[in-house]
Queue: 3 jobs
Job 1
Amino acid sequence: MSQIPVEDQVAMTMNNDEIADATSESNPVDSCSDDFEFFTKIGLTKLQEPSLEHTIIKASFCTGIGDQSELAKKINIVAIHKNSHSSRSREARADSFQVFAKAVADKCGGDANLKYGWYGASRNEICEIVMHGFSWCNTAAGNRYSISLSPAKFAFDSVLSSEADENGLRHVLLCRVILGKQEVLTANSNQFHPTSPEFDSGVDDLSAPRKYIVWSVYMNTHILPSYVISIKTPCLIEGSQGFLEANTIKPNSKWEKKITRKQLIERMKEIAGHQAVAAIVDLFAKKKSLLRGQSLNFQLSIHNFLNKSTRMKVAAAAAAKAKQELQKAVDAEIGGL
């Protein structure tokens, strides 16, 4: 695929994350929106919904969350804002991104492995990223050593790492990413640079990536924030079977029947996930063990108390008997006089 200027490419083919030209025709923008003043005042421009650019970004996001699922149908895209790199610093970062993209392409035989990736965070954090770039202290980054982004086809992962604002809206960044040659990183890795100059970024799985990992040393040269998607979602929880609406889990006839302890645990795993249930069971086991320990200590205390009381009674009885024997001996001695 021939190189096209980064910000002139916004459509995604979800099978391979390739980028096609979607801004060859005029795409009107709306820079005046009172509802999103926090974005427009930092230089973001709101895309008008009939535009081709808006349509492509919306379709890409919907595909990334599974546009045929019932839950996806309840997610409403409220607005899409574009980072036009209007300030000098942002324009410089965009130019720097292209320079590094060319350098990585030259190193990798002509392919910089450019992709789009999703990044979910709070509204304030996204504003900070757009204005000043990524930072190791970004709360949604995962750790201080790297930035993790979700591939185009896993937009839902970024939704879960986002935070609802005071209006109930969540916001996710769509970023252009230079991946180059990737190396596999283990979970919670503290690696903050490639193991050798051969590599340019990290990934959780080369054959089926779920996370693009960009080290902190490259986070503002290899990641370029391009769009902010603002959405309204139902209340979500993560379960072993995927993502469920918390407010749709209601009792039914299955719950009215008596079930075994094993069936209850399996049902809880389906709803809350294996890790959550394991944590609950472990906590319950610890509390039960503690209670058993406390009960045993109490029983031992009673036992010790009873043993002490019994010993005292036995001693008192022996003393009384000895006193009786002594009295008999004294009486006998007196009688013999």
Job 2
Amino acid sequence: MAWWKAWIEQEGVTVKSSSHFNPDPDAETLYKAMKGIGVGSQLLSHQAAVFTLPSSTLTSASPWGGHSRCIPAGTNEQAIIDVLTKRSNAQRQQIAKSFKAQFGKDLTETLKSELSGKFERLIVALMYLPYRYEAKELHDAMKGLGTKEGVIIEILASRTKNQLQEIMKAYEEDYGSSLEEDIQADTSGYLERILVCLLQGSRDDVSSFVDPGLALQDAQDLYAAGEKIRGTDEMKFITILCTRSATHLLRVFEEYEKIANKSIEDSINSETHGSLEEAMLTVVKCTRNLHSYFAERLYYAMKGAGTRDGTLIRNIVSRSEIDLNLTKCHFKKMYGKTLSSMIMEDTSGDYKNALLSLVGSDP
């Protein structure tokens, strides 16, 4: 399925709005679930989880004077999972407003102070508005030493023009600079050019019309730019891949294979390398089948030694209200195992439980 079709398929959603939703009790549940918020009478007034020390363990010398005393029992991570992974993003925003109104604290900041590690990273990601979350991922990919080109490529190659415009707007509002200018400052050469071209969203054409003559000409131009000559005309590849519609490109790929006797992917592999190769192949993969592309991203985030948690979190969070169910089906077809089973093998604890809750039941 072409990449742009995925955005209109509601059966792909794993996280849906909760019916009979009321943000106030959800906010109170989260308040009770977290330790260290309000002590003494205020904590007890909100019925925080407690345990009681037996009086036999206390002496008259005890600072508690021989009486039993309530002690906060710590953070109830499962309660946090049950609320935040079972509500839509719009509902989470309402919960955050209710939390602040009831308890005078910012929910996201409170979660950061109470949680840690990968579990914190996942739960905090759920609290961002979708476009602000993707803007944050792009900003984080470019800040500090080194650039995570794979993150930038993934987001820019798989989003529609409207989504890219919203991401650029959120990026400028949150970080005070232009996303395009930051990409230009942080990358160079043909990689910079293809990323800037992708940012324009020129492939966002959902019409089914394809001009067979133009498709054939594009295929011939790609062949002439790569296989037919010594060296590669990278800009010809970039221009066609980044400015033609998905339906048009699918026809171009068919014509190319007839001319070159090899797939466009094989030619890109042999003619380019590094991050430019990754960017071009990502465009092709997203054009052919967006769900297969994300299934591949999730698989390789967990395959082998270590887990690429950033990739795993980003793709599960960002796709959970779009097409994660469809991605799960492709994952099982491609790799012979379910996404859930691989998460169970590769992660642990509350982090694992939250991921599984977002992913939902197996296809």
Job 3
Amino acid sequence: MSENTCILCVGLLCLDIVSECEQFPKEDDKVGTTTLPNRCVSQKWQRGGNASNTSTVLALLGDTPTLACTLANSPEKQFLVTDMAKYGIKEDGVVYHDGVACPSSVVICSLASGSRTIIHSNQNLPELSVEDFKSLPLHTFSWVHFEGRNLSNVLMMQQMLRRAYPSAKISSELEKVRPDMDLLTLNSDVIFVSKDYARHLGYEDMKTAAQDIAQKAATGRCRTVIVPWGEDGASGYSEEEGLVSCEASVPQGGVVETLAAGDTFIGAALHALSRGKSLKTTLEFSCRVAGLKVGLKGYEAFGEALRKCAWVKEL
């Protein structure tokens, strides 16, 4: 493995309240630790948010990620900041705000199916501003990854970054359905398109989505499009390699938890791409890392498993 890479992730940091149930509750159910036929097996606080999760994966793979986000000066702050430090994520880009609530997600994980259902709330925390972004030591980052949110500000951040540091690589995640998300292709070298967003655009398979979106995005700077498709694997398209696809990696013990699987895939892809790996190698590596993650609970077990994998070190 080559030396670690300094990557900036721009996006959301929030609190996840994760409840693990034997099965997904029915409407109007009351699920407790001793209720039948469905029980809540465990409940925990966990640091969440797409950019936050991606930063965790990068750190576990040996990179030096910095998370740029906003955070409330609320009771949840200490837990979140301490957890970032635990994984070696730099908090230089965290901007704190008084008098607002911390964004949170209620996550229900089903042991029966491995599914995760997320209900997110962000009441009044301001998004990262362009001035916040400008204050960062942008020259120190070889790669900047943007979560597809806060669109008007993010577009200005990308334009500014492209003018000031034209050699820096920029990637963007198009996950949730929001207006004008396609504008992120104008200054991004790489875009990640979620299955849900691709379906919103009318695509029913990952190969068609990757190839068609790449051809449309070629009018801007984007030259690589990657479309993760869950249990079907992932497809990508680049000018150099054309259309490339990879099957999903299925964990030996079956799927245990799918929470943050997409963020894990993106983190692994950024790790590979930032080292100059081909699209084919990137997809294979990312599917393998994501497959390892969904077979385990939480990032601690995932980190321990990564350290034992020779193929991670050999990338």
